[in-house]
Write a structure and sequence with these properties.
The chain has 12 helices and 7 strands. The N and C termini lie far apart (46 Å). It is 39% helix and 13% strand. It has a 7-stranded mixed beta sheet with strand order 3-2-1-4-5-7-6, sandwiched between helices. The protein has 301 residues and is an alpha/beta fold. The protein is globular and about 60 Å long.
Length: 301
């Protein structure tokens, strides 16, 4: 069995979090536990780490350590679960927003067009909304919108129209069936990139990724202690733009709000104004890290 997931920008993330040995930290995307294990290596006996993941497969990777708490839930509920565990404020929060290697390599999960399988793409397998349901029940306009906004595909209306025509003949239930519908609309030299964008768009919709990221970001300022840090790794421009906007302005739209004197007050301060990206050596060792971008911010003291 291949490794569950090789964490991207591991050293840079740990450095960015500036871990205190006695601090309380949260890894909201636990996955294979790669980042969490490294955080634990920097914690002392009084330190604590909570790992969130809604995927039941991640539970098998939980850390056998009294300082670690596994939370089987979506990170949108971070405030509720911290309160449940008697935690008011934390020293650091990590979010690695990418889909894990485990998901991409599991044909039955339907995240990758490299394999045939059922159209699924659910991070939380208890969810009722799957890729199959999106493809077969969404109105044509709604399909076009998600391909345009989440996949940034300019021919989104043609894609949506083709899907609606195909499903009128019979339901589209497998990855291969969907690819047969979509491929004629992509030029050969861009086929893989555009297919990846189409699958990304469906996955984002199935898992409400932009909505849950927005919910997480807006909670962070109230959860961090003064001097506490948040590190977010993104893998596509939509996520990175939202994170950048929030750090810059304190809101998801990026609108700067000024006081009477023209001063901009934001709840977080960027540690790195430009995103940190993987080195050539890391990309060579872990090609899936190629699109990773790390942004780190601190709550002012």
């Amino acid at each position: 069995m291949s490794e569950y997931h090789t964490p991207a920008l591991l050293h840079e993330t740990i450095e960015g979090l500036n871990i205190r040995p006695d601090g309380i930290y949260v890894d909201v995307t636990f996955g294979g536990g790669g980042h969490s294990r490294e955080i634990m290596n920097h914690l002392g006996e009084k330190g604590k780490l909570l790992g969130f993941d809604q995927d039941e497969n991640a539970y098998a990777n939980r850390l056998d350590d009294k300082r670690f708490i596994f939370v089987r839930s979506n990170f949108r509920y971070i405030s509720n679960f911290l309160k449940y565990h008697g935690i008011d404020k934390v020293d650091g929060i990590l979010a690695d927003l990418g889909v894990s290697s485990h998901h991409f390599d599991s044909a039955e999960r339907g995240f990758s067009f490299r394999f045939d399988g059922q159209l699924d793409m659910r991070m939380n397998e208890q969810s009722t909304l799957s890729a199959e349901r999106v493809i077969n029940t969404y109105a044509e306009d709604k399909l076009a919108d998600l391909f345009y906004y989440y996949g940034e595909l300019t021919n989104s209306r043609k894609l949506a129209s083709a899907i609606v025509k195909a499903r009128a003949e019979k339901p589209v239930t497998t990855i291969q069936e969907l690819m047969v519908i979509l491929q004629p609309f992509f030029k050969f030299e861009r086929e893989k990139k555009d297919l990846a964008k189409a699958f990304q768009a469906i996955r984002i919709e199935v898992n409400n990724e932009m909505g849950t990221l927005g919910e997480l970001l807006t909670q962070i300022p109230n959860l961090l202690k003064p001097g506490g840090r948040v590190a977010v790794i993104t893998y596509h421009s939509l996520e990175d733009r939202m994170v950048k906007n929030f750090v810059r302005s304190g809101n998801l739209e990026g609108t700067l709000e000024k006081d009477f004197f023209g001063h901009v007050h934001t709840p977080l301060k960027a540690i790195n104004n430009r995103p940190i990206v993987p080195s050539d050596d890391e990309i060579a060792a872990n090609p899936r890290s190629r699109s990773a971008k790390l942004r780190v911010a601190e709550k002012p003291v």
